[in-house]
Amino acid sequence: MKENALQSVRLLMTKLGLTSAEVIDYLSSTPSAKTAKVGMYYYAKEKIYSETPIPGKTISGIIAYVAPNGHHGLIIGLREKSLCWSKDELWCDHLLPDDGLKNTQLILLYARKYNHKAQAAEWCYSYAYDGVPSGSAFLPSSEQWLKIISNIADINLALGKINKPLLDKFFYWSSSVAEITDYSRADRGLAEQRAVTIGTTTLKRGLTEKKVKEYTRCVMSF
Question: Which residues, 6 or more positions from 65, have their beta carbon under 8 angstroms from its beta carbon?
Fold first, then answer.
């Protein structure tokens, strides 16, 4: 058994280009393990995470939320951008408060159907920075954002250690929406749809016109 274990270590060293110390870190921090913790660094290429940066490896994101069972959670990207949710004010039905991946897919389907732009969702879906494969990231839902900001201190600490932008903007877009009746408009009483924004400084939700520019930060799931 000891010989098999040594062979496994050598195989990982060859396959991933890791040192023996990094292999030990790898074996104790695979996404299938129960050791995932908020604030850990995630590496998309190797599909591993670690408590401290691994020299020579590209950090793809920060673990931002871990489910109680320890098996899955959310990883937040290292980059952000100021964008409209939809400059064309795309109307989307059936968007959920708790599933950003499905929401992002639906938003993109509606955008293609109506030939409208959905800048925030499109940016997240096409996100291909820091080793993240295009098509694997999404715009988080409002409930997912609330889970993330409950851990904001640990996330910002990890981001700060690698000199990446902190989650400190007044509002971030979510992929969730809500319908309201705007009585201030000339066509009083007309229903309109706004996107749910989450304030990482206020820890509150907002409803924002989709053509306004707010910050966008994508997430991945594990």
Answer: 38, 73, 74, 144, 147, 148, 150, 151
